[in-house]
Amino acid sequence: MDLGIRGRQAIVCASSKGLGLACAQQLAREGVNVLMLARGAEALEAAAQAIRAETGVNVSTIATDITTPEGRAKVLELCPNPDILVTNAGGPKPGDFRDWSRDDWVAAVDANMITPIELIRATVDGMIERKFGRIVNITSASVKQPIESLGLSNGARAGLTGFVSGLARQIVSHNVTINNLLPGPFATDRLTQNAVVRAKASGQTVEQIQNARKATVPARRFGEPAEFGQACAFLCSAGAGFMTGQNLVLDGGTYPGTL
């Protein structure tokens, strides 16, 4: 299936590994030129080089902190007129809300709500002028089904979701869409790291923790990052112009609701 985005330009945040990397890989396979960014330069460049070798498209990189104004300025200087924007940031720390300070909340909202909004603000008018734009925010299945220990993430990502819902309907007439991808458990480094923490706290093995988690997923497995990347590429496609303001859950059937 030709997604109709060959030659387009994309910014993909936090794309040196995990779900962000999967999105960058799949967009490149569709012929999209990609600006990849993350904080760690070495892993980022290694990932980009692998994509260049596989696809032959133009893949550029910048090692920066996208949650800072300086970081966003550097990215937008390299790619001021993206056709596709994929926002992504690591989730805030888990825990009990009684232990979180105001600074913890500000950091969570800044990374997982304000940063995507600032990137959208900087790029959406150009998309409107060119009559093409696809914005995908990687959020979390916790937006639909809050996770008790992830209150910082639940709150910040829900705030972004509410903002996007209103804006998406204002700009879709210009062939500019905004949608959110809500991942459940995917086989990424972050999932493994969380399992290690839980294993140490509970006295169980990492394998036991992961098997118990898989048992809660109707698909009885974790998602593969490539599956997530393919979903992202579809939302960025020319044929997805009639879909906007949506929250697509990719969780193997875990979310029990009908809506």
Automatic annotation (TrEMBL):
Question: Could you tell me the superkingdom of the organism this chain comes from?
Answer: Bacteria
Which Pfam family, giving just one, matches this sequence? adh_short_C2
Q: Which InterPro entries match?
A: NAD(P)-bd_dom_sf, SDR, SDR_fam
Q: Where are the transmembrane segments?
A: none
Q: Which family does it belong to?
A: Belongs to the short-chain dehydrogenases/reductases (SDR) family.
| PANTHER family, A to Z | 3-OXOACYL-(ACYL-CARRIER-PROTEIN) REDUCTASE (PTHR42879), NADPH-DEPENDENT REDUCTASE BACG (PTHR42879:SF6)
Recorded protein name is SDR family oxidoreductase
The species this protein was found in = Zwartia hollandica
